[in-house]
Design goal:
Blueprint: H1 16-35, E1 39-40, E2 46-47, E3 62-64, E4 70-73, H2 78-88, E5 97-106, E6 110-119, H3 125-138, E7 144-149, H4 151-160, H5 165-168, H6 172-176, H7 181-187, H8 192-201, H9 204-218, E8 225-227, E9 238-247, E10 250-260, E11 263-271, H10 272-280
Parallel strand pairs: 1-5, 7-8
Antiparallel strand pairs: 2-4, 3-4, 5-6, 6-11, 7-9, 9-10, 10-11
Length: 281
């Protein structure tokens, strides 16, 4: 039996002091983004193209419109924002820096609030990481900033003829079982020094992407950095350097570089619900 006062498992409810803290967080981050030249956009809750963003289609909440086209509740904002700005609003604005504050939804009834931004037609990943670091400093927190490169696990899988599912599922134990020294060195990488040593052992087919990751890491002005060359993210569109901000078992942010509508762009999403938990602690 479902009572009148119940809400679906996974949905969010903020009221009183918690609603006030959520609004204060959103305002503080918005102020940083406005000062950096970003403008706000609010996109529809429904989308025709969410399957292009989410690795696992089963996470989408879908239905059919009146023309029998599949519609999904918004599970991710990135590609929709780029399409709306470049295609639908392209004649009225040439602005490239946008942010949004809105929830995303996943099956069966999970609702998560995000504060995200997209820097369209810009490809210097250090700029978006620096912006993320500025926001964390403004919030007076210093969680782990984990930096990865999506091309590295792909090249490793190709070099060793491995199933990509090993990396997608984070099956590190099975990688250790292969007993390959250079692979073990990559698994153990956490710092730039570790990565420099691993590069010396790595096959030539992988070194270029490892050096790219190292150079980005060395250029970041943030104290709590972890390098994870074999980490594989869950978003389809990230295609180069990308990163997570994590605190214990909570993901606070995902961001990175991607291609959409023929352009290299950058973006991130801050997960408001998890940030509020960390700020409360």
């Amino acid at each position: 039996m479902i009572f009148e006062h119940e809400i679906p498992k996974g949905s969010r409810l903020y009221f009183g002091k918690t609603a006030k803290k959520k609004r204060a967080l959103e305002n503080k981050v918005s102020d940083v983004l406005y000062k950096q030249g970003f403008e706000e956009v609010i996109t529809p809750n429904f989308s025709y193209s969410q399957h292009q963003s989410i690795e696992n289609d089963r996470k989408l909440i879908t239905f059919s419109d009146e023309q029998n086209e599949q519609v999904a509740l918004r599970a991710d904002s990135t590609l929709d924002v780029v399409r709306i700005i470049t295609k639908r609003l392209g004649r009225t604005t040439s602005h490239k820096k946008w942010f949004y504050i809105q929830p995303v939804f996943s099956y069966p009834s999970t609702e998560d609030y995000q504060i995200g931004c997209e820097w369209i037609d810009h490809d210097d990943i250090s700029d978006i990481i620096a912006l993320t670091a500025t926001i964390l400093k403004e919030l007076k927190i210093a969680p782990i900033l984990q930096i990865s490169n999506i091309n590295i696990p792909k090249l490793v899988a190709q070099e060793l003829d491995l199933d990509m599912e090993l990396f997608k599922n984070g099956e590190i134990a099975k990688l250790f079982e292969l007993n390959i020294p250079w692979l073990e060195a990559l698994i153990k990488v956490k710092s730039s020094t570790d990565l420099e040593e691993a590069i010396k052992l790595a096959p030539s087919s992988i070194k270029e992407e490892l050096v790219k990751l190292l150079n980005v890491a060395l250029g970041i002005k943030y104290s709590n950095i972890v390098i994870a060359p074999l980490y594989y993210g869950c978003m389809k569109y990230y295609d180069d350097i990308y990163y997570r901000v994590i605190d214990k078992n909570l993901t606070l942010c995902n961001g990175g570089s991607y291609k959409s509508e023929g352009m290299n762009s950058l973006g991130f999403a801050l997960y408001s619900d998890n940030l509020l938990k960390v700020l409360e602690d």
